[in-house]
Specification:
A hairpin with a 5-residue loop joins strand 1 and strand 2. This protein is of the alpha/beta class. Helix 3 (92-108) crosses helix 15 (401-421). The protein has a five-stranded mixed sheet with strand order 4-3-5-17-6. Strands 14-7-15 form a three-stranded antiparallel sheet, sandwiched between helices. Strands 1-2 form a two-stranded antiparallel ribbon. The longest helix is centred in the last third of the chain and has 29 residues, at 484-512. Helix content is 43%, strand content 14%.
Length: 520
C-alpha cells in the first residue's frame, strides 16, 4: 500500500468515524440509494474497494422491529454487546463496538439481543450440549458467534447452516471477509461460518512479527534498518531467509554468565505453540478438503504437508535457531520483550503489542511485519489466526426462513460497519495512532488482515482429537528442537481417525442440511 493510499484512507476513516460515533440518523449503508427489491447496490469501503450489499430498504420494510437472538461467548477481547453507560470516550474499541451495533440496528430496523455464554477451548462439548438443549426447548437462536473450535464442532454436528444458502444476503466476495475464508473452509460447496472485520478477536489474535526499532538503530552492525524491513515486505521479499539473517545476528549476554538465559537480549523470543505461525506462514496446511472426491471417506484428510520433508526441514531449522544463542523459548515472550526493551523481535499475536503500552517502556519505538514467507517463490504471505477468534454463523435450529434471513443480514451488515467502526479502533489501540500516523505498519496490518489463514485443522481440533491440538505438536517439536521426522508418523495415524469421522459427517450434511423454505 502506497503512502498516498494510506493518507486518503485515513481521511476517509476520519470522516466516517466522526459520523458513525455520533450515531446520527444514518440508516442505510447504501447512502439512501433505493434499489428495486431483490437487487443489490454497490458500496465502496475506506480503501476504495467496491462491494455489493442487498436491498436494505426492502429488508427493513419486512423485518423492522424484530429481535435477532445472538448466542455469543465471553471472548478474550470485547466483541459483542457494549452498553452506552460503559462509554467514557477513552476506549476506542468499546466506542467502535457500540457504534457498529447501533448502525446495524438502524440499518436493518432490528433489535440485537446478545446471549453471552462461557466458552473456550475446554468448553466446546458443554457449549454443544447447551445449543442442543436450546433447540430441544424451542428457544430461538438466530446467530451463533462462538470460539473457533466450538464453532467447528457445532458445524460438524449440523447446528450451523452454510452461509452460502443465503448468498442473496451474505456476499463472501466482499472485502470484510479475508481472501482465504472460502478457499480454506469450504466443504462440498458449503461455508459454515465467517470471520474477518466482524470479529475483533480475529484482528487482535492473528499472528505478526513485532520488532524493536530502537534496538535496530542502536546496533548498526546487524546490517538492516526498519526501512529495509518495510521495503522487503512491500516487495514480497520478506522471507524466512531474511528473518534468519536479522535475528541470527544478535545476542547480548546481559548477565555475563557466559550462557544464554532468560534475562539476556535475543534476536527472537517466542514460545512453543506460537511457532506454528511459521508452519502456516510457509504455505503448509494441517488439513485439506478434497471437494472433487466422490469418496465420502476422503473428503477431509490430514494434509501431506504434515509429514512432508518441508515440514521436517522447517522444524529442524527453527529448532536450530531456538536452541542457539540468538533465540529464546519464553512463555512470556511479549511481556519480557516489553519489560526489558532489549530484544530485537518477538512472534506472537498482534494483540501482544498492548504489553508494550502497559510496561514502563511504553515509549518504545516498535513496528510490525507479517509472518515471513517460506521463500521468494511463495505467492503471498500467510498469517494464521490464533485459536480464540470468533466464527459467526447462522443457526440451523430455528427452522424458520425469516429468522435465517435476519441472521444472514445481521452478519453481513455487521461486517460492513466493522471495517470503520471497530477495525480502525483496534489499529488505534495497538499503535496509538491512526493509519496516517503509522503508514508502514498500516500496510503490514492490512497485509495481515488480507492474508489471514483459517486452516480447518485448527478449527476442527475438537473433531480430530479430544485433547491433542494438531497445530501444537509440530510447533512444540520446533521450539524444543525435537525431530519431527520421528514424531509425525504416529500423530498422523491418530488424526487420520478424526478426519475420517469428519469426512463422513460433512458428506452427509451436504446432502441433508437444507435452508428452511419460506412460508407461503
Amino acid at each position: 500500500m502506497k503512502l498516498t493510499r494510506i493518507l486518503s484512507l485515513a481521511i476517509v476513516f476520519t470522516m466516517i468515524l466522526s459520523m458513525l460515533i455520533a450515531c446520527g440518523d444514518k440508516k442505510d449503508p447504501v447512502d439512501g440509494t433505493t434499489t428495486p427489491e431483490g437487487t443489490t447496490a454497490e458500496v465502496t469501503n475506506p480503501a476504495g474497494e467496491v462491494n455489493t450489499l442487498f436491498d436494505t430498504d426492502a429488508f427493513i420494510e419486512k423485518y423492522e422491529g424484530e429481535d435477532v437472538n445472538i448466542l455469543c461467548w465471553d471472548s478474550e477481547h470485547r466483541e459483542f454487546e457494549v452498553l452506552k453507560t460503559e462509554l467514557s470516550g477513552s476506549d476506542p474499541l468499546l466506542e467502535g463496538i457500540y457504534a457498529r451495533n447501533v448502525h446495524v440496528s438502524e440499518t436493518l430496523g432490528v433489535n440485537l439481543i446478545f446471549n453471552e455464554q462461557d466458552d473456550d477451548t475446554n468448553k466446546a462439548a458443554s457449549m454443544l450440549q447447551y445449543v442442543e438443549m436450546q433447540a430441544d426447548g424451542g428457544t430461538p437462536i438466530d446467530v451463533i458467534a462462538l470460539y473457533s473450535r466450538t464453532a467447528g464442532l457445532l458445524s460438524q454436528k449440523g447446528h450451523l447452516l452454510p452461509v452460502n444458502y443465503y448468498s442473496d444476503y451474505i456476499n463472501l466476495d466482499n472485502s470484510w471477509y479475508p481472501d482465504a475464508l472460502v478457499e480454506e473452509t469450504n466443504i462440498r460447496g458449503n461455508t459454515y461460518y465467517v470471520s474477518g472485520d466482524i470479529s475483533t478477536n480475529l484482528l487482535y489474535l492473528t499472528y505478526g512479527f513485532v520488532f524493536n526499532k530502537d534496538v535496530l538503530e542502536a546496533n548498526p552492525g546487524i546490517g538492516i534498518t526498519p526501512a529495509d524491513l518495510y521495503k522487503l515486505v512491500e516487495e514480497q521479499k520478506w522471507t524466512l531467509e531474511e528473518m534468519y539473517k536479522l535475528v541470527g545476528n544478535y545476542w547480548v549476554d546481559y548477565d555475563e554468565n557466559g550462557v544464554k538465559s532468560l534475562n539476556d537480549s535475543f534476536g527472537l523470543r517466542s514460545y512453543n505453540f506460537h511457532l506454528d505461525a511459521f508452519y502456516v506462514g510457509s504455505g503448509m496446511k494441517y488439513v485439506v478438503v478434497d471437494n472433487a472426491t466422490t469418496d465420502p471417506t476422503k473428503l477431509i484428510q490430514i494434509a501431506g504437508d504434515y509429514t512432508s520433508q518441508k515440514a521436517i526441514d522447517l522444524a529442524d531449522e527453527l529448532g536450530e535457531l531456538m536452541s542457539s544463542n540468538y533465540a529464546y523459548n519464553d512463555e512470556n515472550a511479549p511481556k519480557t520483550f516489553a519489560n526489558t526493551n532489549r530484544d530485537l523481535a518477538f512472534v506472537s499475536r498482534v494483540r501482544d503489542i498492548q504489553k508494550i503500552h502497559d510496561s514502563e517502556n511504553n515509549d518504545m519505538s516498535y513496528g510490525v511485519l507479517p509472518i515471513p514467507k517460506y521463500d521468494i517463490a511463495q505467492e503471498d504471505y500467510k498469517c494464521v489466526a490464533g485459536n480464540p477468534l470468533t466464527l459467526w454463523g447462522i443457526s440451523a435450529d430455528s427452522v424458520d426462513h425469516d429468522r435465517e434471513v435476519m441472521a444472514a443480514a445481521v452478519i453481513e451488515i455487521s461486517g460492513y460497519f466493522a471495517q470503520t467502526d471497530t477495525t480502525e479502533a483496534i489499529f488505534e489501540t495497538l499503535f496509538k495512532g491512526r493509519y496516517s500516523e503509522h503508514p508502514e505498519d498500516a500496510e503490514s496490518f492490512d497485509i495481515i488482515r488480507r492474508t489471514t489463514s483459517f486452516d480447518i485443522g485448527r478449527i476442527f481440533t475438537k473433531v480430530l482429537s479430544t485433547n491433542m491440538a494438531i497445530a501444537d505438536q509440530w510447533s512444540s517439536a520446533a521450539a524444543k528442537a525435537q525431530k519431527w521426522a520421528t514424531k509425525c508418523v504416529g500423530l498422523k495415524r491418530m488424526y487420520d481417525a478424526g478426519a475420517l469421522t469428519a469426512s463422513k459427517d460433512f458428506w452427509n450434511l451436504a446432502d441433508t442440511l437444507k435452508p428452511t423454505a419460506p412460508k407461503n
